[in-house]
Amino acid sequence: MVQSLNTKVDLTVNATSFMGLANYGKIMVGDKAFEFYDDQDVRKYIQIPWEEVEFVMTTVLFKGKWIPRFAVQTKKNGRYQFAAKNPKKVLRAIQDHIGKKKMRRSLSFFQIFSRSIKAKFGKNN
């Protein structure tokens, strides 16, 4: 069994991890780390200490009414994507530990599309 990094757990929520295939489990937000534990396989877990988190990127749709998924970008190991049963509670709990400056909103479809058009047909081309 895996030993948790947290001594106190603030929030536990059902979630999905998108590392390869979707893994269903639980997200635990605690005093020392962000953790994901798979329901099926105990060997599939993700533990990210708060010092290792570079920023959290959130996909926001319909002016904040729906948050389908979010990603935790680490300093060394890359990006981990998650979807949670109640993402607003999870993001608020994460924000209490890492601060508001490390919370970011990802680009929308139209922002990505307009940037690609500007890059293709901009002044430099």
What does the model show?
By secondary structure, this protein is α+β, with helices and mostly antiparallel strands. The chain has a single domain (9-121), classed as PH-domain like, CATH 2.30.29. The mean pLDDT is 88. It has 2 helices and 8 strands. Strands 4-3-2-1-7-6-5-8 form an 8-stranded mixed beta sheet, with helices on one face.
Number of strands: 8
Counting DSSP H or I runs of 4 or more residues, the number of helices is 2
- Share of helix, binned: 10-25%
Structural class: alpha+beta
Kindly estimate the percentage of residues that lie in beta strands according to DSSP: 35-45%
The biggest sheet, with number of strands, parallel, antiparallel or mixed sense and barrel status, is: 8 strands, mixed
Which segments are poorly predicted (pLDDT under 50) over 5 or more consecutive residues? none
Rg, nearest Å:
16 Å
Strand order, sheet with most strands:
4-3-2-1-7-6-5-8
Mean pLDDT: 88
CATH topology: PH-domain like
CATH class descriptor: Mainly Beta
Task: Examine the secondary-structure arrangement and name the CATH architecture.
Answer: Roll
Quote the distance from N terminus to C terminus: 57 Å
Number of domains: 1
Shape, principal axes of CA atoms: elongated
- What would CATH call the homologous superfamily? Pleckstrin-homology domain (PH domain)/Phosphotyrosine-binding domain (PTB)
- Compressed to H and E, one letter per element, the order equals EEEEEEEHEH
Protein name: ManO family protein
Organism: Enterococcus cecorum DSM 20682 = ATCC 43198
InterPro entries: DUF956
